[in-house]
């Protein structure tokens, strides 16, 4: 598969809200577009923040996992409902969690215990386009940007963080690939830069298994 390596510049803008202890972080790519599903890893020992709660649920809607990226602590049970009217098969070969949920329908809600730190890449054997990530960590407070590339943090101390680690799945499925960035003040904003290499998406034929299930209307 061909890959186009493009340096992407993330700019993190932190703007204080009306409430003094709240900060709003927006992550943009080098082309100025918001970057969704970027994980900010904030060392809880250095800065006390309250990050938005992430659900320990990974649903399946319109042949896609949702959310694409979620964060949980080790020992968390993650539930995998199926909101489609077709069957799905969820699996992962990741070192942090190797598991398989064989074909099941919307009547079932199986769960898996994520007991080891790391990044777990999820897939579906029936629908190759279905990919998601569960970030498992107790060393960081983790905040995931929304579709507008924005996340809001509530500070439990008077100062905003001066350094964060940023991970995005374009960096690969190892948390060690996350890059530390210094947040520097510039005209009332905090900015940072991270470089990643997004892959080029290529069209490919559906797998035999997917073709068979599509013919059957599953």
Describe the structure.
The protein has 218 residues and is mostly beta strands. 4% of the residues lie in helices and 42% in strands. The strands form six sheets. The protein has a five-stranded mixed sheet, with no helix packed on it. It is globular, with a radius of gyration of 19 Å.
How are the SSEs ordered, and which strands pair?
Elements: E1 11-16, E2 22-28, E3 39-43, E4 49-50, E5 59-61, E6 64-66, E7 69-72, E8 76-79, E9 88-94, E10 97-104, E11 111-114, E12 118-124, E13 131-136, E14 140-144, E15 150-155, E16 163-167, E17 179-182, E18 184-186, E19 189-191, H1 208-215
Parallel strand pairs: 7-13
Antiparallel strand pairs: 1-2, 2-15, 3-14, 3-16, 4-15, 5-6, 8-11, 9-10, 9-12, 12-13, 16-17, 18-19
Q: What is the strand arrangement across the widest sheet?
A: 7-13-12-9-10
Low-confidence stretches: 1-8, 13-20
End-to-end C-alpha gap? 29 Å
Q: How many DSSP-defined strands?
A: 19
**Helical amount among residues, as a percent range?**
under 10%
Mean pLDDT: 78
**Topology pattern, helix = H, strand = E:** EEEEEEEEEEEEEEEEEEEH
Shape assignment = globular
Cα radius of gyration in angstroms: 19 Å
Instruction: Assign the structural class, choosing from mainly alpha, mainly beta, alpha/beta, alpha+beta, or little secondary structure.
Output: mainly beta
Our count of helices gives 1
Strand percent estimate? 35-45%
Largest sheet: 5 strands, mixed
């Amino acid at each position: 598969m061909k890959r186009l390596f493009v340096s992407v510049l993330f700019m993190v803008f932190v703007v204080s809200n009306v409430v003094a202890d709240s900060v709003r972080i927006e992550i943009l790519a080098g082309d100025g577009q918001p970057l969704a599903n970027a994980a900010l890893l904030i060392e809880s020992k250095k800065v006390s923040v309250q990050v938005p709660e992430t659900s320990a649920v990974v649903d399946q809607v319109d042949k896609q996992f949702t959310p694409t990226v979620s964060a949980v602590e080790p020992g968390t049970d993650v539930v995998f409902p199926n909101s489609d009217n077709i069957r799905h098969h969820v699996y992962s070969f990741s070192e942090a969690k190797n598991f398989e949920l064989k074909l099941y329908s919307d009547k079932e809600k199986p769960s898996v215990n994520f007991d080891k730190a790391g990044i777990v890449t999820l897939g579906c054997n029936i629908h190759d386009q279905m990919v998601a990530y569960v970030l498992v960590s107790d060393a960081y407070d983790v905040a995931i940007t929304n579709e507008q590339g924005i996340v809001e943090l509530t500070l439990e101390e008077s100062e905003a963080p001066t350094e964060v680690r940023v991970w995005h799945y374009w960096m690969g499925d190892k948390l060690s690939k996350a890059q530390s960035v210094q947040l520097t003040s510039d005209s009332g904003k905090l900015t940072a830069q991270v470089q990643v290499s997004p892959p080029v998406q290529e069209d490919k034929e559906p797998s035999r298994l997917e073709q068979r299930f599509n013919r059957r209307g599953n």
